[in-house]
Description:
The chain is of the alpha/beta class. 49% of the residues lie in helices and 15% in strands. It folds into 3 domains: 1-72 and 98-121, no CATH class; 73-87 and 123-161 and 184-474 and 813-818, Rossmann fold, CATH 3.40.50.2000; 531-802, Glycogen Phosphorylase B (Rossmann fold). The chain is built from 34 helices and 25 strands. A hairpin with a 2-residue loop joins β5 (162-166) and β6. α23 (567-582) crosses α32 (766-785). The longest helix has 30 residues, at 43-72. The structure holds ligand CRA. Ligand CRA binds at residues 129-131, 134, 282-283, 330, 368-369, 374, 446, 475, 665-669, 687.
Amino acid sequence: MTENRANSTAPVTAPQHSVEGFVKEFLRELHFGQGVTMERASVNDQYLALARTVRQYLMARWLETARRQREAQAKSVAYLSAEYLLGRQLDNALLATDLSEIVEEGLASLGIDLATLRDQEVEPGLGNGGLGRLAACFIDSLATMSVPCIGYGIRYEYGIFRQTFVDGFQVEQADSWLSLGSPWEFPHPEAAVTVHFGGRTEKYDDEGVERTRWVPAWDVLGVPYNYMVPGYRNGRVNTLRLWSAQATNAFDLAIFNSGEYVDAVRAQTFAENISKVLYPEDSTPQGKELRLQQQYFFVACSIRDFVDNVLPADFDLHDLPSRIIFQLNDTHPVIAVPELMRVLVDEKKWDWDEAWAVTQRCFAYTCHTLLPEALEVWPVELLGRLLPRHLEIIYRINDDFLAQVAQRYPGDELRLRRMSIIAEHPERSVRMAFLATVAGAKVNGVAALHSQLLRDKVLPDFSEFWPDKFTNVTNGVTPRRFVRLANPALSELITDAIGPGWLTDLARLREMEPLADDADFREKFRAVKAHNKQRLNDLLQRRDGITLPGDAMLDVMVKRLHEYKRQTLKVLHIVSLYERIVSGELDPTSIPPRVFAFGAKAAPGYKMAKQTIALINHVGRTVNQDPRVKGALTVVFPPNYNVTLAETLIPAADLSEQISLAGKEASGTGNMKFALNGALTIGTDDGANVEIRELVGDENFFLFGLVEPEVDALVTAGYRPAAYYEENPTLRRAIDLIASGAFADGDRTVFEPIVSNLLHEDRFLVLADFQAYVDAQDRVDTAYQDTEAWTRSAILNVARTGFFSSDRAMWDYIDRIWQTQPVVAR
Ligand code: CRA
């Protein structure tokens, strides 16, 4: 071995873990990476240099993790998700490397304020809401648990839109999160993968065996961008690999050769459109062709990557299930199933049955919804045009599956039609959830109630056919980001009380339970809340010019705007309080002052949701300006709710609003974040609320509303919302006030669609639950006035909700679905 070669295998080492070590590297990054001097450096230069410096501390661990992984040949989880709602990276990296203090001190010695640089980071908003944030929590947990995982997804050039308000109405702006530089990503253009689309299939004779090949019409390149996923102080750094679409040379050349230079450049844009923008619909897919292109694009790249690059060159693919489990995050990546079949049958020339046996063991499917409109279906016409070979494979999978069903239930035609992966009406289409269920080794829902309803209501024939395939894993959230980083004051209080072990073993929060009865501790707990409210106030002032009244209950509803989540019910409550005060029925000094805080984005094409946003803003404007309710009721709605805002808003909350119609919210994860940060929940018997209430106890939770079987019965019997309006004067006066135009400068037309929807349709039973909700809110008011008892409940919420750590969720996946093992350092 030559001298040079020997050097090239020298271990990669991190910069010194000291203030001097950090400052030296930081200045080097500033000078040689950014090409500026300290005197000339902008805040952005400083931020980029800082990010690159912190990255260096993780690099050795990252390379070492990859080496260890190759050596151990352990089974990996490949998490396939169209969304990762990561949130800011800098703080998380500082926490993982335990560098916060060093960096703060080092920067201060150079006259730089760490907080200012933190604020410079634009969060990667590559997801819509719960599903994308869940994926981000899961990869954080797996890294922290030393479980091999590679996250696969799409590097959208534009993430979730930036929301602004114009006259109270939502206006969307493009989220160009990459425009100031992207120091956390590592592009590898040399490792690009080709993905095919369109064309036709043809049969050919392969030494006496008839085979099929796909003759595609066009290609794009998938360029991998790697991101570090650091475990919490355990020396492990997993990888998130997001794919970016680029035009292939061949694609360009064909057009270049025809002399159409400008068209060729335009064609490039066509290919690159695939990863251009995240679809902004949260659980209501629009069935757009480009979306199917996105889905196929990223799973084709990911399977190719795993088979060709992650596995050793001589790997026998028959052993694939011992090395990988592809976890399908909802149906978005399900086209991976026919893609793996295509690779095995067409490219590797396996028999169908042999390929199917392996494929079936390589996939598992998580369903995240119960809403029928959220279950993806792709028209056969579209799928066949874009992916003709995959459509054939899906047909074959369906034929074989239906043959099995027919064998078990001879003559049951109706059942066959119900269970077919191909739906015939309203147009011939592929039911992706059925395909995922047929192919997946396991199918899970995301909360106990959801998994039950999934079996009983959404996929009953399938759960009868394969009872053992179905399981539950209740969602969780990462305590590193949502407690430690979001709530440093509470974290310190907890660590002082029970030591630091809770951060990686959240069930240990239980040890705090006795402290709920300790007056001294309660006092400290309240001081933490007050501090967090102050911090929120500072942020909102800086960000939006909003000032919160001091010393009010903070009642928060943050989540995507969707009718089933019932922001309208919350608005009706506020309007009703306002109306009762203004009409003299309610003495404003008899209730504790409240701030109602909202955060919500509406899908740009979702009219009712956008109207609701406008209604909240208009009600807010009226209420906040009216001297008769001043001090008692305040409404705030900061625009552009995102992970970064959540991190300051949630720790300040007293009351968490989780008021979806029972049976509609699969799980919720915001509900968990609030409870863990010491807010009490007012909620329906829905999603993970059920489990939160079981754990914290009825007396520490404000339950209201119809339960799922009651909802079902009411709808079946014929629900008539107007009856509630007619019979309940409080409700009637609130609705009438909205209808009168009182919140729209007298214009009765502006909110007419909301009013008439409530009175004549009300799909989500807002009016049916109104009185129960108002009564529960009265109980909240009473409870809040007993400060000591309220604090006790808040502490018990924290102490009893350790179950909702995403670490626990990951152990459940490992145990019930993946059968993987952590890989520990030797
Ligand atoms: N919209 C559910 O509605 C759930 C998350 C994560 C959702 C939430 O109740 O907490 O998933 N469903 O499991 C979804 O995206 C496609 O379906 C969500 O985020």
